[in-house]
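Sequence, please.
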């Protein structure tokens, strides 16, 4: 089965260490909430604002989840220290998109996917099925791998923080973007590559259509 999606808007951002200028203070005026945000949550909020998405269904994903929170929990256990309730709360895969829904008062359905290197590909597949309802959806993927001593573990990923947002809807038009032939010369996390390839090939002068094979 094949489903075609029109890319209504897109945004992506990345940095080798830590993304700057995420506009978090303006996007999240409440200091108490802002202080609780994870790096992935800040990226998700930024990307959603860039594609003007506040209300609607979201398919979100990541492969590595909230590594910083997980690392802090493990360090606390190892050091026989009390685990921070906020860190524990922030350690689940859907932390980022949950903060996004709370900040924007979005009460619509959210699906979270984590499937290794195929995470963004499976976000596209889930989004295509959801789009059959003929509403507009936000497809979102983030990776935040910049944790303490990551340099001792990482030999293959150049960009430790990255995220991609695609605002999509169902279409019957023919595809204009091929996203399956991935050339990852810059060594991004593979989990973001299918969606990143789409975002990097957007043509603002024409319709941008992808074909999703289920």
């Amino acid at each position: 089965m094949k489903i075609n999606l029109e890319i209504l808007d897109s945004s992506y951002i990345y940095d080798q260490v830590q993304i700057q200028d995420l506009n978090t203070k303006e996007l999240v005026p409440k200091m108490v909430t802002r202080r609780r945000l994870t790096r992935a949550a800040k990226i998700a909020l930024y990307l959603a604002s860039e594609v003007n998405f506040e209300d609607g269904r979201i398919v979100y994903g990541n492969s590595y989840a909230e590594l910083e929170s997980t690392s802090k929990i493990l360090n606390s256990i190892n050091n026989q220290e009390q685990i921070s309730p906020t860190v524990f709360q922030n350690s689940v895969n859907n932390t980022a998109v949950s903060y996004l829904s709370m900040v924007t008062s979005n009460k619509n359905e959210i699906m979270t996917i984590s499937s290794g290197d195929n995470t963004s590909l499976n976000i596209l597949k889930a989004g295509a099925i959801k789009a059959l309802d003929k509403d507009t959806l936000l497809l979102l993927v983030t990776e935040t791998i910049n944790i303490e001593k990551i340099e001792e573990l990482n030999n293959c990923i150049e960009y430790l923080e990255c995220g991609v947002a695609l605002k999509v809807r169902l279409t019957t038009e023919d595809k204009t973007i091929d996203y399956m032939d991935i050339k990852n010369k810059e060594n991004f996390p593979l989990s973001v590559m299918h969606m990143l390839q789409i975002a990097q090939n957007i043509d603002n002068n024409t319709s941008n259509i992808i074909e999703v094979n289920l």
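The CA atoms of residues 36 and 86 lie 7 Å apart.
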